[in-house]
Specification:
Distance between the termini: 33 Å
Order of helices and strands: HHHEE
Structural class: mainly alpha
Strand content: under 5%
CATH class of one domain: Mainly Alpha
Strand order of the largest sheet: 1-2
Helix content: 25-40%
Number of strands: 2
Radius of gyration: 25 Å
Length: about 100
Amino acid sequence: MLMSALTTDDVVHVAKLAKLNLTKEEVEKYKKQLSSVLAYFEELNEVDTKNVEPTSQTTGLKNITREDKIDPTRTLKLDDALSGTDKTKNGYFVVPAILDKNS
Protein backbone atom coordinates (compact mmCIF):
# COMPACT_ATOMS: atom_id res chain seq x y z
CA MET A 1 0.00 0.00 0.00
CA LEU A 2 1.52 3.32 -1.06
CA MET A 3 1.64 5.99 1.62
CA SER A 4 3.77 8.47 -0.30
CA ALA A 5 1.24 11.26 -0.89
CA LEU A 6 2.15 14.07 1.45
CA THR A 7 -0.39 16.53 2.73
CA THR A 8 0.02 20.29 2.77
CA ASP A 9 0.37 20.07 6.55
CA ASP A 10 3.25 17.57 6.16
CA VAL A 11 5.17 19.94 3.90
CA VAL A 12 4.48 22.95 6.12
CA HIS A 13 5.68 20.97 9.15
CA VAL A 14 8.93 19.92 7.44
CA ALA A 15 9.50 23.49 6.25
CA LYS A 16 8.99 24.75 9.80
CA LEU A 17 11.53 22.24 11.12
CA ALA A 18 13.99 23.48 8.49
CA LYS A 19 13.10 27.09 9.39
CA LEU A 20 11.94 27.77 5.82
CA ASN A 21 9.18 30.21 4.97
CA LEU A 22 7.38 28.83 1.93
CA THR A 23 4.72 30.45 -0.21
CA LYS A 24 1.53 28.52 -0.99
CA GLU A 25 2.88 27.88 -4.49
CA GLU A 26 6.14 26.48 -3.10
CA VAL A 27 4.25 24.23 -0.67
CA GLU A 28 2.26 22.76 -3.58
CA LYS A 29 5.39 22.38 -5.72
CA TYR A 30 7.34 20.62 -2.96
CA LYS A 31 4.35 18.49 -1.96
CA LYS A 32 4.34 16.96 -5.45
CA GLN A 33 8.13 16.60 -5.61
CA LEU A 34 8.54 15.09 -2.15
CA SER A 35 5.62 12.71 -2.69
CA SER A 36 7.32 11.52 -5.86
CA VAL A 37 10.58 10.90 -3.99
CA LEU A 38 8.77 8.93 -1.27
CA ALA A 39 6.95 6.85 -3.88
CA TYR A 40 10.30 5.93 -5.41
CA PHE A 41 11.64 4.78 -2.05
CA GLU A 42 8.49 2.75 -1.42
CA GLU A 43 9.33 0.71 -4.51
CA LEU A 44 12.26 -0.67 -2.53
CA ASN A 45 9.76 -2.47 -0.26
CA GLU A 46 8.95 -4.69 -3.23
CA VAL A 47 12.52 -6.01 -3.47
CA ASP A 48 12.93 -9.48 -1.99
CA THR A 49 15.81 -9.25 0.50
CA LYS A 50 14.91 -12.35 2.50
CA ASN A 51 18.17 -14.17 1.62
CA VAL A 52 20.45 -11.12 1.61
CA GLU A 53 22.85 -10.76 4.52
CA PRO A 54 23.04 -7.30 6.10
CA THR A 55 26.20 -5.36 5.27
CA SER A 56 27.60 -2.08 6.47
CA GLN A 57 30.22 -1.77 3.75
CA THR A 58 31.46 -4.03 0.99
CA THR A 59 35.03 -2.94 0.29
CA GLY A 60 36.74 -4.86 3.08
CA LEU A 61 38.55 -1.70 4.18
CA LYS A 62 39.05 -1.04 7.86
CA ASN A 63 39.19 2.30 9.61
CA ILE A 64 42.67 3.09 10.89
CA THR A 65 43.00 5.57 13.71
CA ARG A 66 45.95 6.98 15.54
CA GLU A 67 46.39 7.51 19.24
CA ASP A 68 45.53 11.03 20.34
CA LYS A 69 48.59 12.77 21.67
CA ILE A 70 48.62 16.30 23.06
CA ASP A 71 51.54 18.42 21.99
CA PRO A 72 51.76 21.14 24.65
CA THR A 73 53.92 23.27 22.35
CA ARG A 74 50.98 23.56 19.92
CA THR A 75 48.21 24.53 22.37
CA LEU A 76 46.98 27.96 23.41
CA LYS A 77 46.63 29.13 26.96
CA LEU A 78 43.04 30.08 27.84
CA ASP A 79 43.83 33.80 28.00
CA ASP A 80 45.51 33.67 24.59
CA ALA A 81 42.59 31.78 23.05
CA LEU A 82 40.06 34.30 24.38
CA SER A 83 42.19 37.37 23.68
CA GLY A 84 40.46 38.15 20.36
CA THR A 85 37.12 39.03 21.94
CA ASP A 86 35.65 40.69 24.97
CA LYS A 87 32.51 38.54 24.76
CA THR A 88 33.35 35.75 27.20
CA LYS A 89 31.73 34.14 30.20
CA ASN A 90 33.28 31.63 32.59
CA GLY A 91 36.18 30.94 30.23
CA TYR A 92 34.04 30.39 27.11
CA PHE A 93 33.18 32.46 24.03
CA VAL A 94 29.72 34.03 24.09
CA VAL A 95 27.91 33.52 20.79
CA PRO A 96 24.33 34.11 19.61
CA ALA A 97 21.95 31.23 20.33
CA ILE A 98 21.07 29.08 17.32
CA LEU A 99 18.43 26.94 19.05
CA ASP A 100 15.41 28.03 20.98
CA LYS A 101 12.91 26.24 23.21
CA ASN A 102 10.30 26.27 20.42
CA SER A 103 12.41 24.31 17.93
